[in-house]
Specification:
3 helices
């Protein structure tokens, strides 16, 4: 991105042949709605995906959604 110190010819070539995004915005705080926004081009409130389908994964005895002292 313009540094004279680091030599990155492959990245410079890639940036020269395509698009370089210098700023970014995450559409949501977790991955599922952010990914849906990237895939659809819609805001989270428009595609209505707010979280993963279910947090019921893995062994329920060891699963922790919120950190707790054990």
């Amino acid at each position: 991105m313009g540094s004279n110190y680091y030599e990155t010819p492959n990245l410079e070539q890639l940036a020269g042949e395509g698009m370089a995004f210098k700023q970014a915005y995450a559409a949501a705080a977790n991955c599922a709605p952010s990914r849906a926004s990237l895939m659809t081009g819609m805001y989270t409130t428009a595609h209505e995906i707010y979280t993963v389908g279910s947090s019921e994964r893995g062994d329920s005895r060891t699963r922790r959604i919120i950190p707790v002292k054990t």
